[in-house]
Amino acid sequence: MSTLPNIPAMACMNEAGLFRPLTDAEKKTALALNAQDGKQGEVWEPITPAPSVPESPRGATALWVYRDAERRPLYARFRKEDEGGNKVVLPLTYGRRIWTDRNGTRRDVTGWHWKQPARPLPLYGLDQLAANPEATVLLVEGEKTAEAASYLFPDLVVLTSGGSTSVSSADWSPLAGRRVTIWPDNDAPGVKYADAAIEALRNAGVQSVHMVKVPEGLPDGWDLADDLPLDMTQGGETPGIEILRPLVDQAPLAESNVKMPPGYSMTSKGLYFTSEATGELPPVPVWVSAPFEVIA
Predict the structure, then answer these.
(1) Is residue 267 domain-resident?
(2) pTM score > 0.85 for this model?
């Protein structure tokens, strides 16, 4: 019977059941065990806050820096196209990485790497949250949408945890005691993100949670970074902000949603199923049925 190889871990459970980084002694022990099998694993030690902001990676079309309450950089995410021409968003974190490259050379580099920081991950916009302690918080999906919403609503603090599957990875505790309004993207992943965020926000102890009722007539996938359809603005004669702002100010309290099986969400276009993310690309929602109302 073969035995499993010893693989060096970079974190272990503490007494509270939470992950913590290994001590230097534990790291040496893990690497020594792995070396007995004639292998050397990768060591990744994220360092936050980082001493500087990262440069935009080659080929990146956008870069978003996550900062703490004192505006110190924590990590970043950037968007680029993969080999197939698909848009992907990847992490960028400062830290020490020890690994063997494709040429077999052992490398030890402290700097910015395409790696994740330790979880839970910070929210995007913590510096603005700290600078505006009385402002209402607007939660959206994705950094691009957050930037657009900040321009549209300068009196609000706009935050995001990242992509549509990021809720469970984020640290929501900075929002304790705050008033939060969610603006979901107009698609099945957007509804799923909002539903997960409602529960996370309540668990974090926010003062209140409201959710914008997205109007009918918007294209599938529409978000605040997109222009409103011309038929909603009378051919462009009505400023978009006159349509969008009342939706935020009049957003109702988020209702306790019907608990659907994991992965299912109801939109204006019907019931969809979205599988759990297993790679860098988000899963594609699958239409199940026309929309219906759950009575009891």
Answers:
(1) no
(2) no
